[in-house]
Amino acid sequence: MVAFSLGDELQGVIREDRAASKLQQEVAQLFEEAREDVYRYVLSLGVHPPQAQEAAQEAFLRLYATLRKGEKIENPRAYVFRVAHNLGLKTRAKQNVQEAFDPGLEQQIIGREPSPEHTLLEKERWLQFHRAMSGLSEQQRRCLDLRLEGLRYPEIGAILGISASAVGEFLRRALVRLKKSCD
Amino acid sequence: MSNLAQHLEEDQLLRYADGELPARKAREAKRHLEACWQCRAELKESQDLVNECVRYRKNVLQNYLPSPPVPWGDIYQGFAKIDASRNDVSLFVRVARLFSMRQIATWTPVALATGLVVVAFLELRQTPSVEAAELLRKAVLATDSRPQKPHHIHIRTSKNLEQNFQARFLAANYSWDNPLSAKSYQAWRDRLSEKHDEVTTAEGEYRIRTTTASSEIKEATITLKTPDLEPRQERLQFRDDEWVEITQAPEDITTISNAVQPPVRIPSHQPANFTPPPATAGDELHVLAALHGVGADLGDPIEVARNGNQIVVSGVGIEPQRQQEIRSTLEAIPNVVVKFSEPAPAPVQPQAQPDGIAASSTAPEPTPFQTRLEKQAGGRQRFEQLSAQVLDMSDTMMSRAYALRRLTERFSPDVESQLSAADRKILRIVSREHTDALAQQEAQIEKLLGPVLISMGASPANSGVTAGTAEDLFRSAKRVETLLATLLGATAGEAPNGQLPTQVLSALAELRLNLELYKRLSLQESGGK
Fold first, then answer.
1. Residue pair B21/B12 in contact by the 8 Å Cβ criterion
2. How far is B246 from B266, CA to CA, in rounded Å?
3. How far off is chain A from B87, nearest CA to CA, in Å?
4. Taken in order B211, B214, B215, B218, is the CA torsion positive or negative?
5. Which CATH number does B132-267 carry?
6. What is the Cα–Cα distance from B490 to B370, expressed in whole angstroms?
7. Is the pLDDT of residue B197 over 80?
8. Which of A2, A45, A74 would best serve as a mutation to test chain B binding (most B beta carbons within 10 A)?
9. What is the pLDDT of residue B262?
10. How many CB atoms lie within 10 A of CB B311?
11. Is the domain B281-341 a CATH 3.30.160 member?
């Protein structure tokens, strides 16, 4: 009898170990696939690159810690963006003595030498579109950025603390504004 | 009915394209778009802008934003720290602890048993990285790379399953086209919303065992030969404990004549070659069950009809991807003809607003009732969120109610009595899935709305006498839907009154009662099985 009960316990330990290892593989795979996207999103919040990279990596670890506790997460990618968003804003608040990070995209687009693949016309087009994007309100821009990352309206709403219908409205206004600016 | 004069607004177009409209509104929008070039052009324009955003992300953001300043850290180290902070200890220490808790007197049998378990454990640990999904993927690739040659399979079933196991496969969404194959196993497994896999190795073979609560097959095991990963054996156990065992048969079929059940022989790369009988209600049920398996009985414009010895499945305006999904679901069923067509162009009507979408209407002023409702819900934003959620649930609920009604109309008691016992079981399974989903939606709506309505003074009135028939069930679901649409302002022109909260709660209570009665009646009719 003792032998059987010990066998059961041992099997339980092994099962738990295998479950943890499977979880690690899943989160590690998501990390490989999505870390650059999350990092760029945190940069867009005005966080400087070293802290943005740190926040992005931390978001995946929090995902692992939460799943490890047995909590169910419907969309792990959306969860990572939510955590990264919050970490990014906290970092921004801490670095308020510094200026928000500005990647100087406009100068970079202007400075790009035209090549057979990147014509002058294309450069002008991207410059115009970039200026239109810069003209969006903060909420419009965030909704658009998160939608571009493949998140659904309720997921974006949960990150930004607004309703799904408000997300739809911000996106609509963003597109109207982009259209006007590009026409 | 789609009204061409009422163009879709910009936000509706965007939400439609993003798949964020509730199912019914999405269908209405789709119908309108099919008929209205103007809205379609608007949609295309929006889509072009979205494409431009995607290109901007790729060409500008991904190119010009600075790369991470340092190489990414080893995430596994972070995992280890988290595990350590959870007071987890290593597997070795945990195993050692197990032993230290035992009395010395029991040491010898413990050691023996442990030895056995550790040997088994080491055996298991030899394939820690061989996950079920990966193994199946490799097995599918291996099968695809082998020259296709017909081979035979040998099928054994539990006694009660002898007659109709093919239908059970369809109801469980398991391909009957080639049942003993990694591809079929993989396709079934990939569709499970919840599952648990175990991969073990034994001499010359891998064994994958999948258990699930989200399929009619509760446990499946497939054995793959090493090293070529060719399926050798498969066993599927259904929720009612009936089972099917499929084994690769030797080329010389006569060597397997001593099986417990009479062996069935079919070429494994072709659909099962049963003599096609004239189409019966049972055949029709198999098609409906297969469609049910992919959710095609929940609002897709699909008709199923018997025509001679064929079952004709026709659909209008179905997306190409969905058409493909439906075709592949039905291709294993003999004598099924699938016909898809595009809708006839709608007659062009005079456009009420030449500028189309630009004429966006301003939102009407909320009535005092709506203001009160919003306040009780926790503010306008919260109300909008709640409203969208509830209307969506109401939509899902109605799609179930319609599906259940269609099923009961088609399989009246007379028709049902002509079905075999196994087919009656399939009918009950499909019907039960609809009622369970309906009950779930009702409960969720009540949970979300109940507190708000009660805070507005609502109290559910006793519902009238009901027989709990499928028609009663449908009628009460319809009433809930209508009242919810009025309450949440989804129906234009109907002003909600002070009695509405009570009416909604009462309608929900009546629906709940009807569901309970219907389930009880169904259980009695099935003899409590």
1. yes
2. 11
3. 12
4. positive
5. 2.50.20.10
6. 12
7. yes
8. A2
9. 37
10. 24
11. no
CA proximity to B57, closest of A76, A40, A11, A21: A40
Q: Quick one: pLDDT band at residue B353, thresholds 50, 70, 90?
A: very low
pLDDT of residue B119: 43
User: Is a pLDDT exceeding 80 seen at residue B28?
Assistant: yes
Q: How is B328-380 classified by DSSP, letter by letter?
A: HHHTTSTTEEEEEEPPPPPPP---S-TTGGG-PPPPPPPPHHHHHHHHHHTSH
Of A21, A53, A175, the CB nearest to B69: A53
Which chain A residue shows the shortest CA-CA distance from B122?
A: A14
ipTM of the complex model: 0.87
Residue B526's pLDDT band (cuts 50, 70, 90) = low
Residue extents of the structural domains in chain A: 1-102
**Closest Cα partner for B313 from B321, B298, B297, B425?**
B297
Alpha-carbon distance of B115 to B192, in angstroms, equals 36
pLDDT above 80 (res B184) = yes
Give the alpha-carbon dihedral of A129, A134, A135, A141, to 10 degrees: 100
Domain ranges of chain B: 10-63, 75-125, 132-267, 281-341, 365-525
What is the pLDDT of chain B when averaged over all its residues?
Answer: 74
CA B96 to CA B304: how far, in whole Å? 63
Going by CATH, does the domain composed of A1-102 fall within 1.10.1740?
Answer: yes
Does residue B102 have a pLDDT over 70?
no
Candidate from A34-43, A116-125, B71-80 with smallest mean pLDDT: A116-125
Tell me the pLDDT band of B473, cut-offs 50, 70 and 90. confident
**Cα angle A27, A28, A34; round to 5:** 85
